[in-house]
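During the reporting period the student researcher (J.K.) took over the structure-prediction task from the postdoctoral fellow and processed the backlog of single-chain submissions. One of the processed entries is reproduced below for the supervisory committee.
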Amino acid sequence: MTDQPTSVPFEPYAQALSAQRNQALDQVAQLQAIIHELRTDNDRLTAENGKLRADSDDGPFSS
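J.K. obtained the following structure tokens:
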């Protein structure tokens, strides 16, 4: 056995890691868009729920 270092080409690994990083960043952006959409829907539904509750408190069958 020799104690000489072996040379490994770095470029293919760097390209693969860069592609994986870009894919992960794309997924993060997609998930952030979904989160924003869900929060917007939640806010809208919360407001609608509050309005319905207020309307039912003022309705003919309220106590």
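The committee noted the following: The mean pLDDT is 90.
J.K. will present the remaining backlog at the next meeting.
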